[in-house]
Amino acid sequence: MAPTRNKKLLAWVEEIQALCKPDEVYWCDGSQEEYDRIVEGTVRSGASVRVNPEKRPNSVLFRSAPSDVARVEVRTYIASRKEEDAGPTNNWMDPDELKKTMRVLYDGCMRGRTLYVIPFCMGPIDSPISKIGIEITDSPYVVANMEIVTRVGTKVLERLGDDGDFIPCLHSVGAPLEPGQKDVPWPCAPMEQKYISHFPEENLIWSYGSGYGGNALLGKKCLALRIASAMAHREGWMAEHMLILRFTSPEGRQYHIAGAFPSACGKTNLAMLQPTIPGWKAECIGDDIAWMKIAPDGSLRAINPESGFFGVAPGTSYKSNPMAMESIRENAIFTNCVLTDDHDIWWEGMDEPCEHGIDWKGREWTPASGEPGANPNARFTAPCRQCPIICPDWEAPDGVPIDIFLFGGRRTHVVPLVTEAFDWDHGVYLAATAASEKTAAALDVKGTIRRDPFAMHPFCGYNMADYWQHWFTMSDRLGGKAPKIFYVNWFRKNPDGRWLWPGFGENSRVLKWMCERVDGKAEAVDTPIGRLPADGALELEGLDVSAEDWAELLRVDVDAWKAEIPEVEEFMARFGDRVPPRMRTQMANARKRLGL
């Protein structure tokens, strides 16, 4: 018997059951017993393997199909009624045509499988900023991960009540089983049958064919960003691809920073920062997504809508991110990592080398194998509560007040270590023109550099130019309480290819300068691209960075920035008349400051 009397929900589950034709229906209650049973079922079926319980209690490793390892942006759609409302950064399909195509695929797609109903809440159950979703899936992997990264179960249904509204999220791996047919460890559909589809006017998500990450865990990028950004635009709030960090001074002054970086550009590392500056303390509130609303006192308050981390594994180590390593010591799910001979997990960039193991494709592996043992986009899933520096207020229903917006990307040249925007509108321009070298988080990004406005290029659920206007509108509403905006680049190199900035915990020095700028205590100098730290304003004591390297880190190469302008203008031209007038003013200002 269904554990709810919500008529809309019951009717939707009945409709999907009739369409997908599963062998049985199971309503998730979010209990530990349920999670353990689901995970044990994947072990028995061969879909996962137990990690050594003495090393990582209650943890498992999954290996995906080689064709299903990351986001597939080319198969991700925004099905708005008008193509121009999706904009040039999104793939668009007519919603009626897309549904017609997908209904054919969904017809009977869950034969031989269980249909799981996952009631989940994005954000604390009692937060006015939170939203409820219901994901239907035929993947136990999805159930287990959703029970970590979102709040699942009976309490969600209680909040939903008999007549509450929810966001329907339908997912299938797209691999029905005939009677007697043996399942494979990672079922999925061929690439040409994968669809990750969003219907923003209906607050509806349909996903088919992929079992991996944000393609299948529909509370993440699909709901928390693509659908939520469109909802936020209509309702007057913000859904952003941002970490949330509390940074506290020796005097006890708390600053809250929301930072946007493309995936695999160090966002989780910064969210779990270990400051090297004496007396300063950092606490993690969230590592990936921020939902923000203007509070009655006029401040912009943010919650982390997730309850777990879904982090990029390769490169994560006790050197780069000790708090992440501590967070995955137990109760974790690993995907596409190496299984060592003692049944622990390993990936490239981990502190200790691995001489032999089973790679992410299930083959014997050694360093001489000629290819990575872990997939470059291998992942870990772990509860936020396990992070040693999780902020006591990370689940505060009203959120935390944001003082600073921070944007960045991975650029080895041109972009200085840190830049403060002249004002909010200039900050929107800096974020809108952000560019980054490509990462392993998406399968199908071409070229080495791409514009990734606000780190939202793959995640904005409507026309990006309208999104920029929404940022301008929010600043008008916030007035004098609008956060300051900064841009950082930890990845600059010298001409010989050597990193100029040590990064990791030393990034706290840059955050300290930002906080002092918020309080009007630190000095800055104006340049054609923004305000940079004045000599001596950013604390370098005890840091092994030469004067020559420091000068290069803050050097503004005017000719290089001039060379960027035509490419920026070409990118902006894609949006045509939708580009906000205030953005056009900022583009003109940028040309003028550079002497163009």
Could you characterize what this model shows?
This protein is of the alpha+beta class and 596 residues long. The chain folds into three domains: 7-48 and 72-236, Phosphoenolpyruvate Carboxykinase, domain 1 (3-Layer(aba) Sandwich), CATH 3.40.449.10; 239-308 and 393-593, Phosphoenolpyruvate Carboxykinase, domain 3; 310-384, Phosphoenolpyruvate Carboxykinase, domain 2, CATH 2.170.8. 28% of the residues lie in helices and 22% in strands. The chain is built from 16 helices and 32 strands. The strands form seven sheets. Strands 1, 4, 5, 6, 7, 8, 9, 10 and 11 form a nine-stranded mixed β-sheet that branches. 52% of the residues are buried. The model is unreliable at 440-447 (pLDDT under 50).
Q: Tell me the overall shape.
A: globular
CATH class of the largest domain equals: Alpha Beta
End-to-end C-alpha gap: 70 Å
Tell me about the biggest sheet? 9 strands, mixed
Percent of residues in helical segments? 25-40%
Q: How many helical stretches?
A: 16
Q: List the domain count as a whole number.
A: 3
Report the uncertain regions.
440-447
- Could you say which structural class the secondary elements and strand pairing correspond to? alpha+beta
Instruction: Estimate the strand proportion.
Output: 15-25%
Rg over CA atoms: 24 Å
Keyword list:
596 residues; 9-stranded mixed sheet; Phosphoenolpyruvate Carboxykinase, domain 1; 16 helices; Phosphoenolpyruvate Carboxykinase, domain 2; Phosphoenolpyruvate Carboxykinase, domain 3; alpha+beta
